[in-house]
Amino acid sequence: MEQPPLFDLPPPGLPEGLVYEPGFLTQDEAAALEALMAALPFAAARYKAYTARRRVVSYGGSFDYDANRLQPAQALIPELHWLRDRAARWIGIPPQAFVHVLVAEYQPGAPLGWHRDVPDFQDVIGISLGSDIVMRFRPYPPIRPRKSDIVRLTLAPRSIYLMRGPARWNWQHSIAPAQALRWSITFRTASAQWRGSEPPR
Ligand SMILES: O=C(O)CCC(=O)C(=O)O
After folding, report:
1. Pocket lining: 188 vs ligand 1, CB cutoff 6 Å
2. 99 CA distance to ligand 1 centroid (A)?
3. Pocket of ligand 1, candidates 184, 185, 187, 188: which has the most ligand atoms within 8 Å of its Cβ, to mutate?
4. 196 CA to centre of ligand 1 in angstroms
5. 186 lines ligand 1 (CB under 6 A)
6. Which of the residue ranges 82-86, 108-112, 190-194 would you say has the lowest mean pLDDT?
7. Phi, psi at residue 33, to the nearest 5°?
8. Facing residues of 103 across strands?
9. Is residue 121 within 8 Å of 187, Cβ to Cβ?
10. Measured over all CA atoms, what is the biggest interatomic distance in the chain, rounded to whole angstroms?
11. What is the dihedral of CA 16, 29, 31, 186, to 10 degrees?
12. pLDDT category of residue 46 using cuts at 50, 70 and 90
């Protein structure tokens, strides 16, 4: 029997181009990453004048919302190389295609507001650790926004998601306030406007 193409079919009801896979990490891998989280130098995320409640660490690049551009950031720490390589294999790209890695910590009650990632990035992959969280999606730009347009996906710890194509460009997403401590590790590729020029290291 013919296999369905891996990334062509969105889960029912979810934006096209969104791929979600629970159990991407083993229990042991997740435990090792959670131990690493405790040692990372998280700092409050800033968006222009606004300081978010989640705390982050950036690798490869750090988006400066005042200058509206990606600035170089520290290189990815060796402890995360295997995860970057595995995430790259999952979507069939070379690991070097990821130009930005963001590790985010959500303390209980910390949300992430509605947004679409800056156009400097193309694909976005996210890996979850800690506890369940609800990720929400709504069409963008909103024509006649209705609450019923919002689609919800519970992200389990150890899961992975990909936002690509319509899910990346025609939808916004947000993270509901965390019930318990949760972390995400997101990997981003560069959009076409960067290709051909040197991405930040
Ligand atoms: O925590 C997540 O999985 C979502 C992260 C996100 O949307 C972002 O960093 O822009």
Report:
1. no
2. 16
3. 184
4. 27
5. yes
6. 190-194
7. -70, -40
8. 57, 185
9. no
10. 55
11. -40
12. confident
Stated length of the chain: 201
Residues 46, 56: Cα–Cα separation, whole Å: 9
CATH 2.60.40.180 matches 18-190 = no
Does the beta carbon of 117 sit less than 6 angstroms from any atom of ligand 1? yes
**Angle, alpha carbons 141-135-194 (nearest 5°):** 60
Q: CA 130 from chain center: how many Å? A: 15
167's enclosing H/E stretch is helix 166-169
**Averaged pLDDT score across all residues of the chain:** 88
Looking at the predicted structure, is the pLDDT value of residue 192 above 90? no
Question: Would you say the CB of residue 104 lies under 6 angstroms from ligand 1?
Answer: yes
Residue 174 Cα: closest atom of ligand 1: 7
Tens-place pLDDT, residues 130-149: 999 999 999 998 777 677 78
In Å, what is the CA distance from 59 to each residue of 44, 68, 76?
A: 15, 17, 5
